[in-house]
Structure of Integrase family protein:
Amino acid sequence: MPSLQEKRGVRLWRAAVMVDGKMRRKWFPDDSKASMRAAAAWEEETRKQLLRQQSQTSTACPCLLYEWGRRHLDWAMGFYADKTYVERKAELSAFLGAKPAGIAADNYSSVTAEEFAGTPGEAMEYLKDQREARSGNAANKARKNLATAWDWGKANVPGWPQGGINPFREQAKYPEERQPRYVPPREHVEAVDAHLRGAALSPLGKVLDDARLQDWVMFGVFRFALARRGEVFRLAPEDVNLVGSTVRMWSRKTRGGNLVGKWVPMVPALRERLALWLKVRPIKDKENLFLVLDQYEFCKGYYGKPFTSQQHGMERWCERAEIVPAFDRHSIRHRGALDLYESGVTVSTIQRILRHSSPTTTERYLESLGCDLANTREAMERAFGAGKVIRLPVRETA
């Protein structure tokens, strides 16, 4: 994944690719979004080129599971969003460091893929251990990540076992005991919003503090655009269309992991905040709309740079507004989705607002928030009639 680095005092995008211990880097001319996309494209093409060279020159069969995990993570670093990559790395590290159940080895790192796939019950025992040590949810997460990585190895690692089945994917999922997602009361969201506004603006609308104003504007994007954290951090001035009252959100929530921008309508409250921020923001020569403005001791070195994590930011906002329990940014998205559903908005419209690629994703999302979609369908069928089964005539053959 490209990163913003300083070179001779100038911020530039730098692309970096490592495959099988070989590192290639390239600097791009500036810190613009165009350079970021060019750097991402260069990384993807260079990675493919190195993997092709590797498969052509490799004479030994790199079938050790350690090599598989290392190569897969080298590739995944530039393909997945940060959150997905961190999860995949954690699951692979835990697996490779575990002691095999029926293979004579200290850990799976020194086991070959062929030996692992040919040992009955090995994948089942590992996932069983994960369920007992962690939970059914965790075992299923491990199964998903390891099965995907195994499929990748089959397609990309020279000498990887091509026959047979994916030993992880053939394992049945464990029953899950998911805790309901926390959805803050609407009053709590409104209270934090009001507190942030009070810290940012005087009763007459005069800006009191640039950093606090930015907090209030960012909170508005989370609240009124149902934005994800990464979407807010990536926001640039050109992504805000005040004339058309739309804002463009960039996300990697796609099957291919590519950065995709989608335009979202802005309600008047959000448009007013963004219009004000575009006008009065103190730093206007940077790519990103939101930058680190606080000058606390722990973040002085990041002043004027784009956000990457903003740890405990939401927790501080809730604490200052005296809201208990504190809620995170994604809970605001939950609250908004629930408000839309309870207002009678259709699932297809909610899907577009949440920027989900599939309506099934939106249905699962709403059900995890406690929405009873099954009863909703039954009510609709009672009101409008269930679909009829049309029997087609069977053509007789001579």
